[in-house]
Amino acid sequence: MSERVHGESRGTNASGRGGRHALRRVPVWAWRVFMHSVSKGDLRSLNMDPIAGVQHWYDIDFVGDHIRSHRLDVIAPDGSDPAGSWLPVYVYFHGGGWTSGDKASLTKYCASQASYGLVVVNVNYRMAPHFHLGHVLEDANEALVWVDAHIREFGGDAHRIVLGGDSAGGQISALTAAAMFRPELAEHYALHPVTLATSVKGLVQHCSIVDFSVFFDRGFVLSLNFVRMLLPSRGGRRSGGNQKHMLREESHYMSPIEWLDSRCPPVFITTSERDFFYSSNMNFIHKLDQHGVPVDSLIYGWESINTQHAWQQNFRYPESQEVYGRLQSFIKKVTA
């Protein structure tokens, strides 16, 4: 059963909540320019005052082709003994609208989680528009292949994995989990999952893009070109009704809400009314409840001013610290 916290928004008027939609139909090029302009600042500000008591292994090449998109970091508690009791593993995918972002900006977030007694794997992947969603999911699968083969060297238990991500990274983690028990989805993307669904004990979603139906809502924040660029064929570029219908059909394979059923592991979801993808997350919670999937949710109302999209990365906010505490309780419960 999902739990609604800080979400009643008593006394908040509709025009305030409507501010979430101040940006409408942002094109891909504008998103990329904006993300590029803030990325250096985020890299610096989000990683201030590094976490003590953890050890880092940076830029491990998990494919072997020497490109940055195929690098991951491992962060584990100091003194963790690979020969001793293996720790749960938290595999995390950064956001950025599939076109931008980097694992480096999530270093402190991941280190924070490792300090609680986890082995955290912080993953890069190839991005659009040069690569499509099939490539992205292939990279996510390859990262899990590496985890299965090597994580014990760092003290992690390959049979107690929690997948997570923010924004587009949440979609990647959720669709990767679904492909483990939905062979038709894996076949669509030519994936051959090595990690067993039984090894994935939980799923973490921070402001995730989990319901692609919202892309077709009038005035949604991102343009339909975000859906088009993820297609292998880059199809559906015309604006006619048939093309839009085709695009909606294709988006079915991108939308985790369509694939995660009663076989889905327990899910921890955080969002807020200030999040661009609030309705996507609320739809997801409702659908998981219908399937009987255990859901723990932390949802903030409009009055929580710190909870803009992907606020969870910013350790300075008390709301982020509350997320971290709830996240650790969730992981401890599902991996026990």
Write a compact overview of the structure shown.
The protein has 336 residues and is an alpha/beta fold. The protein contains ten helices and eight strands.
Commentary on this structure:
The protein has 336 residues and is α/β, with parallel strands linked by helices. The chain is 34% helix and 17% strand. The chain has 10 helices and 8 strands. It has an 8-stranded mixed beta sheet with strand order 1-2-4-3-5-6-7-8, sandwiched between helices. Helix 3 links the parallel strand 3 (87-93) and strand 4 (119-123). Helix 4 crosses helix 5 (168-179). The radius of gyration is 19 Å and the shape is globular. The relative contact order is 0.15. Mean pLDDT is 91; it is low at 7-16.
Strand order of the largest sheet: 1-2-4-3-5-6-7-8
What is the percent of helical residues? 25-40%
Largest sheet features: 8 strands, mixed
Number of helices: 10
Beta strands, count: 8
Main structural class: alpha/beta
Overall body shape: globular
Give the mean pLDDT.
91
Ranges where pLDDT stays below 50 over 5 or more residues in a row are 7-16
Radius of gyration: 19 Å
Which percent band covers the strand fraction? 15-25%
Order of helices and strands: HHEEEHEHEHHEHHEHEH
